[in-house]
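Fill in residues.
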């Protein structure tokens, strides 16, 4: 039976971070109505996926842990009722430091959530406040230990680099700090300034110079490896093989269904998404795919081929060289000579240096198709 992943979007946060372009609001008065709508969509999509078994579930946002715990538990029950599950599924919840209690974490763990991902971003309190985070680093340390006490053995943290006024030493210090915690997975992202955010609108925003940003990434990747965190994707690192099974599904073009406002799905070769509109989502009375609510597009053969190339080069799986056109041979040789990529077992894999410029490499290769 084919496998599927489920994603549930919780578009609520305590307040908005200055760089964030995700769909989330600080007004949580819609929580109950939103939970009701989510349950209706779960029932509708459960019918679609009758012949699939689910092996990963991901609660993302926003900040799912600012959503009332009793409603989170109801969503978990509804998913279990309407989908068939494989043995030992991965259930992840995203959380922010300062939004969890031992009681809440214990309830989520008992309900089956077995992986938690904290948005830590930095160990520097001054920097945290500059980017609009509402927690301090000590809250992050406390949250990780609370999760451990509540029975979570698979804990992930997010860190950011290329933040305003950040230094290479600061980034390495962040990595030293978080790797001394009981975390099995680290996501290490560079700041991207998006137009419709306070950072995007700030004419005085000064970011570290490009060569400094490169050094942050390359030295960060090196230190993570020394600490035992293996890179399996441009921004993701895991110990003891504890990769995010759910996120791997995106990079491997496997099917998933998304629930909630702004959630995306990929099912039977169609990509579809709900609009970034909480009130419209809550007011919807037809969640079936016949509804005009969703934007839908079928992926044709050429697009599927391009997606496959783009996504697999992001990961340590790499891309089968046999699928590249003959005219790319010279370019691939250049990549190998300049140590942007390696070639082994018939797979082209980007090195960390290549991952830094992966967008340019991927678009060069796409032009040759
Ligand atoms: S906590 Fe996360 S989702 Fe919420 S505003 Fe900040 S970055 Fe965005």
């Amino acid at each position: 039976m084919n496998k599927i992943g489920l994603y549930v979007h919780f578009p609520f946060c305590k307040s908005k971070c200055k760089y964030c372009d995700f769909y989330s609001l600080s007004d949580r008065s819609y929580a109950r109505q939103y939970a009701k709508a989510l349950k209706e969509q779960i029932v509708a999509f459960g019918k679609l996926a009758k012949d699939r078994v689910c092996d990963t579930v991901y609660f993302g946002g926003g900040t799912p842990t600012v959503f009332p715990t009793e409603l989170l538990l109801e969503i978990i029950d509804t998913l279990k009722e309407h989908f068939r599950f494989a043995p030992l599924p991965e259930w992840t919840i995203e959380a922010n430091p300062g939004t969890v209690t031992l009681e809440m974490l214990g309830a989520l763990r008992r309900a089956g959530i077995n992986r938690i991902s904290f948005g830590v971003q930095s160990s520097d309190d001054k920097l945290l406040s500059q980017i609009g985070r509402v927690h301090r680093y000590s809250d992050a340390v406390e949250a990780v230990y609370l999760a451990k006490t509540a029975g979570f053995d698979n804990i992930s943290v997010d860190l950011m680099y290329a933040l305003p006024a950040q230094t290479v030493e600061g980034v390495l210090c962040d990595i030293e700090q978080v790797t001394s915690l009981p975390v099995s997975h680290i996501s290490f992202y560079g700041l991207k300034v998006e137009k419709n955010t306070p950072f995007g609108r700030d004419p005085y925003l000064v970011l570290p110079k490009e060569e400094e940003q490169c050094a942050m990434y390359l030295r960060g990747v090196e230190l993570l490896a020394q600490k035992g965190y293996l890179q399996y994707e441009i921004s993701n690192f895991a110990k003891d093989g504890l990769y995010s099974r759910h996120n791997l599904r995106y990079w491997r073009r496997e099917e998933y269904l998304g629930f909630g406002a702004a959630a995306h799905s990929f099912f039977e070769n169609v990509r579809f998404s709900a609009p970034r509109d909480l009130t419209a989502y809550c007011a919807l009375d037809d969640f079936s795919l016949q509804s005009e609510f969703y934007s839908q597009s079928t992926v044709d053969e050429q697009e599927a081929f391009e997606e496959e190339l783009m996504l697999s080069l992001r990961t340590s799986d790499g891309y089968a060289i046999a699928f590249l056109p003959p005219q790319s041979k010279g370019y691939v040789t250049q990549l190998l000579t300049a140590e942007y990529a390696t070639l082994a077992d018939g797979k082209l894999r980007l090195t960390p240096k290549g991952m830094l410029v992966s967008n340019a490499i991927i678009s060069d290769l796409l032009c040759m198709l």
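The radius of gyration is 21 Å.
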